[in-house]
Amino acid sequence: MKHSYRPPRHKIHISRLIKLVRNHHFLTGLLIFFLVLTSFLTVQAHRNRATLDKADTTHPATAKQVAQQQRHVKHNLHHYFKKITADGTTSVSFYNLDPVAGSPAAKSKMARHFYKSGALATSANAHTPEVSASTYKLYIAAYLFHQHAAGLYTWTPTDEDGFHRMIVNSANDFSEDTLDTYGPVALDDFLASQHYYSPAFVSGETAVTTAHSLTLVLKDLANQQGPFRHAKDQQKLLALMKQQVYRTGIPAGATAAQKGTVVADKVGFLADTNNDAAIVTLPNGERYILVIMTHGHEQSGFSGFPRMAKITTHVQKLVYNPAIVKGLNK
User: Fold this and answer.
1) Distance between the two ends of the chain, CA-based, in angstroms?
2) Mean pLDDT to the nearest integer, 52-78
3) What are the distances in angstroms from CA 84 to CA 87, 180, 216, 307?
4) Percent of the chain surpassing pLDDT 70
5) What is the b/e burial string over 290-300, where b = at least 16 CB atoms within 10 angstroms of the residue's CB?
6) Residue 105's pLDDT is what?
7) What is the pLDDT of residue 15?
């Protein structure tokens, strides 16, 4: 029986291939396929490169780099302080505090590291005794709080009213009555026991203190330490300091630097002396202490307060520039 002729398999494939090649629709489809594949591979390669580049730029700074930036900021701040205190009529002290617990700043690991309490602290002429004016009333508050915590003092409605006016309006009657009741020696001994400046009170003389000492008082107040351990008393003083009516110094400067900044401060003004001692809290929870003591320059009344506001604005913008932490996170 004869078998019908069958051409070799490879000849069938070749013939079919020739037909496909001659088919323009097939060639067009094949070309489109390769173009799409090439485009996909190119896009994917760019995405992979972008991912790698992003990973490369999101590594946080090393501890060495953070320390270097801290030194840079502190150097610039100290240089500015030396400049504004060069004529001897100004004392200034800055101390950065830990951010408010639970705040955006506290939740940022880099911000907590960079602004760790005291890391940027610096001052100029801060240990020189100057006329305290009414900033000494912070010492009166500290002494009474200490007495209260020891069970040796009870707040009466009259005392509460006097204390309120002493802080909010800087009235003198309550503080002077306290000095008369306990005597300057007892208060100076207390100040010395807390490592504040002493003697601040000498009979017949104007009270004196230093910017450094006022910084120590505010640090204890902010951290609920020392004579401010009693939470209710501490919160009462801070609340009244936020309400005090003379706000053209540090409060005005801090708000000019960033709207929404909150300032709890105690001012002092006497003859040509204008002083301000403050705890400043930024909207993101960062906190710092700033004490500025000024005299001379033909100051009178509150004429030195705008100068203190200008200093505050410069300090806050220099130290708390958002670009600092952002740059360290890259």
Assistant:
1) 86
2) 78
3) 8, 37, 22, 10
4) 82
5) bbbbbbeeebe
6) 95
7) 55
CA–CA dist 242, 224 (Å, integer): 17
Count of residues in the chain = 330
**Residue labelled with tokens 């490879």:** 10
Q: What is the pLDDT of residue 68?
A: 92
Per-residue three-class SS string for the chain: CCCCCCCCHHHHHHHHHHHHHHCHHHHHHHHHHHHHHHHHHHHHHHHHHHHHHHHHHCCCCCHHHHHHHHHHHHHHHHHHHHHHCCCCCEEEEEEEECCCCCCHHHHCHHHHHHCCCCCCCEEECCCCCEECHHHHHHHHHHHHHHHHHCCCCCCCHHHHHHHHHHHHCCCCHHHHHHHHHHCHHHHHHHHHHCCCCCCCCCCCCCCEECHHHHHHHHHHHHCCCHHHCCHHHHHHHHHHHHHCCCCCCHHHHHHHHCCCCEEEEEEEEECCEEEEEEEEECCCCCEEEEEEEECCCCCCCCCCHHHHHHHHHHHHHHHCCHHHHHHHCC
Residue 16 pLDDT greater than 80, yes or no: no
pLDDT at 17 over 50: no
pLDDT at 165 over 50: yes
**Tens digit of each residue's pLDDT (9 = 90 or more) over 292-322:** 999 999 999 999 999 999 999 999 999 999 9
